[in-house]
Amino acid sequence: MRRVPLLWQNAWWEGSLKKRTLLIFTGPPGSGKGSLSQLCVSKLGFKQVSTGNLCRQEIAKGTQTGEKIDFLIKSGKLVPDGLITQMVYDWFLEQLDDGALVILDGYPRTVRQAELFHKMILDGTFPFRVVVVQLALDDEAIVKRLSSRFVCQNKQCQAIYSANPDANMMPEKEGICDTCGGEVRRRKDDVPEVIRERLRIYHQHAHPLLDFYNRVGYRVFKLDADQPIKNMLHQFEQETDGLAL
Ligand SMILES: [Zn+2]
Question: Where are the domains of the chain?
Fold first, then answer.
């Protein structure tokens, strides 16, 4: 049997207030936050809330909010902090019913979002203990990675493929998802000029965010994102195992 690392062995706090460990995955777009989250969900039994997926679900529903989000994303802009936080809050209310560890993917993205999120924890509605996992990868590697990325259009699947031969991640049949048979296409926002705009916005917020996490006392550790996803999961397990939680 595989060893269960300390972090999720002690998922619940033993004090009077039961606290759940919540992981914030942070890093530039394309650094593999989504892929690592998916592995943590499938292999380690974590739950994941991805603001990207919440946005795409809203767009798919065709609501007025969805149309607004669609426009902002296509222009490489950010969805307003209050709106994103509300979607995360609603997700917690609906989904937070068991003891699974929760990963936040793509949120908080701004200091304002982090402040709103921290307030949510402090008011006691969701008593979390927060650990920040920082995925590190340089900009040029990201532009190369994202502009060769193809995604399954099936909303339930969203498997990721790459046209970069080095990555060895093309589907067996061109344009068809190996997993579900859905259509595999490039995302509208995965073109170099939009990627660079997203990176510019990302860097604008990344340092103030880390400062905020350190100031409020969240635990932060760094992961090398320039390695195959399986190795990244391995490093993640080692790092979290070493945390004295
Ligand atoms: Zn698929």
Answer: 6-139+199-241
pLDDT, tens digit, 9 for 90 and up, residues 83-98? 888 888 888 888 766 6
Whole-number Å distance, alpha carbon 155 to ligand 1 midpoint, is 8
Pairing relationship of beta strands 102-105 and 149-152 according to DSSP bridges: unpaired
CA 175 – CA 152 distance, rounded (Å): 9
- Determine what percent of the chain is predicted with pLDDT higher than 90: 36
Neighbours of 56 (CB within 10 A): 18
Q: In the block, which residue shows the tokens 């991640």?
A: 169
Å from CA of 71 to ligand 1 middle? 25
Q: What SS3 state is found at 223?
A: strand
Domain topology for 6-139+199-241: Rossmann fold (3.40.50)
Kindly report, residue by residue over 208-217, the tens digit of the pLDDT: 999 999 999 9
**Which strands, in side-by-side order, build the sheet including 219-224?**
47-50, 102-105, 20-26, 128-136, 219-224
183 CA distance to ligand 1 centroid (A)? Answer: 7
First-to-final CA distance of the chain: 23
What is the structure's pLDDT at 140? 93
SS3 20: strand
Number of neighbours of residue 231 by Cβ within 10 angstroms: 11
Across 1-5, 13-17, 65-69, 146-150, least confident range: 13-17
